[in-house]
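hey can u check if this looks right to u? its 104 residues, i copy pasted from the old doc so theres a chance i mangled smth
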Amino acid sequence: MFSLRLLVLAGTALALVSDPAAAADGVTATTVTVGQSAAFSGPAAELGKDMRSGIQAYFDQVNRAGGVNGRKLILKSLDDGYEPGPYYLFAVYRKRRALSTRPR
């Protein structure tokens, strides 16, 4: 019985360390998706747009050079309108689902 437990434990550990990135939300064999929540409307829209442009320019440069460990960087930007307000928790949940690459 002890050796069976040890075998199961060793197999589980091997599976976890063989590709740790595969278990992360937003990471697939070919892409790494990064989420951004910023103001693209409202009083800080220009700031949000400039941040997105800067991030996208850097991601484009990294992708042209082969990506991160061969994975292409993808930016998903979501407009928070510079208003955290009472809908903040729902927005966080919705954004997490939007960024997830796991089947639902």
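The longest strand covers residues 31-38.
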